[in-house]
Amino acid sequence: MRNPNTEIIPLIKKNTLSLLMTKNPDQIGMRDIAKACGITATNIYHYYRDKDTLFQEIGLDSIKEVNKKIVASLNSKKSLKEQVKKAITVFRDWCFENPRLSLLVMQGFKSADSAPEEVIEEYYVCNRTGEQLLAQAIKENLALSKNPRLDIGILVSGLWGCIESVLLKKCDVEYWNKGKAFTNHFIDMWLDSIFIKED
Length: 199
Hints:
Elements: H1 8-20, H2 30-37, H3 41-44, H4 51-73, H5 80-97, H6 99-108, H7 117-122, H8 125-139, H9 148-167, H10 179-194
Helix pairs in contact: 1-2, 4-5, 4-6, 5-6, 5-8, 5-9, 5-10, 8-9, 9-10
């Protein structure tokens, strides 16, 4: 691949994201993306080997954006439990504010499981932020966890399951329009199972 043109890559991502807001990934081809960008299909292949790689990069950009929001929301004047809860709710709120994109990022794009390990690890940046907070709480005898990475992984997977059930209207009908109340209950259950006292 040629050296990336710093102006074309953002254009490709922006126009691809616009397409993804109205079409499913399997309905979009590289020619569609190239046409939306005003470039040739041959040209787009200089930047991305296939559409899945492009979609995965858009997903990774979104995950990194969420993590920046999480880190920016943390306040060391708050208790560690409150900080962990804030980190969780920032992720939850982003999903509810960006329902289409969150569904694509969390389940709509092909997994990057064949990518190098260091690239795969980038997808877990939000988990690692949570893991660091939980490790600090354990160190200060505020939380119990034999495996912080596993406990954060279960939190993220379980919370996403709750969010998805609201977005797809598969939870109890009472909560179709009360996603925060529905997910708050799960968040509080997880926090109460991990944290033994406030700092």
